[in-house]
Design brief:
Length: 336
């Protein structure tokens, strides 16, 4: 049964990574396509390539920092927890993609892991004890801090950039800013792979090497599989979410698109390398777009849509925890 469960984890991890890239492609290409800096096909190919590069780099970060954020019971019960976690996160991601709502794949994964771990503990399996600490550090603290910080920085940086180009003709300024958005797409995609690649690789290492695996020697096939799945998902691109971010949520232009991408890139790199925080690419990009778009002389934000987005952001770890609990209890006989 161990071999079958390990294979199931690998399959579900690949599906989760594909859906991650599929949904989060909008974070990198939405603004660039909206302002016509790049065509959709070129933007998606560019984002996929740099997503893969980010995943490959994330393997080095995982080797350096370790996988201490992820813990499950040993043996088959731990594999059952991982299957339930990945299945729950994937199901929730598909549901929100269908509704066209951007949300955090990381928070979905962590919420499902907590729910599945609770189910495992109820069935008498030993597991990590500090679940409240995991939720606080991995979900609630980043959920509170990163959107507020991204919104505030983007709002004030928009004023600064507007002042810097005050003597330029609008057409000239927008032409130059569109050119920088191509770089912004690549940078955001790389930051996304840097952040989310760590989670996918950590799950695969835990499933194949166990909780005592050597984080200093991650197998090449694991890194390649994670990069391939995330890159393939990005190539297909979830355009429902792209339309929400670039058209429905807030009015934007090349200047505000440039600011949003700049703030998102800095925060993703800073969070992954220095803070070692699991910052949500979706939350960071969405808050940056809102911060830059709000800094206008007229009302530009769809308030009802924003309220629904925030509600789903809060609901995501709770809903996936419930799903993880149910799936882990249903699959528990496979762990014996």
């Amino acid at each position: 049964m161990t071999v079958a469960l390990t294979a199931a984890v690998i399959v579900f991890a690949s599906v989760f990574a594909f859906l991650n890239g599929f949904r989060d492609a909008s974070n990198a290409v939405g603004l660039t396509v909206r302002t016509r800096a790049l065509t959709p096909s070129i933007a998606v190919v560019l984002a996929a390539g740099f997503n893969v590069a980010g995943v490959l780099t994330s393997a080095w970060l995982l080797t350096y920092f370790g996988g201490s954020w992820l813990a499950t019971p040993d043996g088959d019960p731990g594999l059952v927890v991982l299957v339930a976690t990945l299945a729950s996160g994937s199901l929730w991601n598909v549901f929100l993609w269908w509704r066209g709502y951007p949300s955090s794949s990381t928070h979905a994964l962590v919420g499902a892991l907590v729910g599945a771990t609770i189910a495992s503990a109820l069935r008498g399996h030993a597991g990590p004890g500090d679940l409240a600490g995991v939720l606080w550090i991995q979900v609630w603290l980043p959920l509170i801090v990163s959107p507020l910080l991204a919104f505030g920085v983007a709002f004030f940086l928009t004023s600064l950039v507007t002042w810097l180009v005050r003597y330029s003709q609008p057409n000239e300024a927008h032409r130059a800013l569109r050119a920088t958005q191509s770089v912004g797409t690549a940078a955001v995609a790389f930051g996304h792979g840097l952040q989310d690649g760590q989670r996918i690789i950590a799950v695969l290492v835990l499933a194949t090497l166990g909780s005592h695996g050597d984080w200093q020697a991650v197998p090449v096939w694991i890194v390649g599989l994670a990069a391939l799945a995330l890159g393939a998902g990005t190539l297909f691109g979830g355009w429902r979410i792209t339309y929400t971010l670039s058209h429905r949520l807030v009015r934007t232009d090349p200047l505000r698109g440039f600011v949003a991408q700049l703030v998102s890139t800095i925060m993703l790199f800073f969070g992954a390398i220095w803070l070692r925080w699991p910052l949500s690419t979706t939350h960071t990009v969405t808050a940056s777009i809102l911060g830059a778009g709000t800094n206008q002389k007229f009302g530009s934000v769809n308030g009802r849509l924003l309220a629904r987005l925030i509600a789903f952001w809060i609901l995501t770890p709770l809903a996936t925890a419930a799903l993880g609990l149910v799936f882990a209890l249903a699959l528990d006989p496979l762990g014996h």
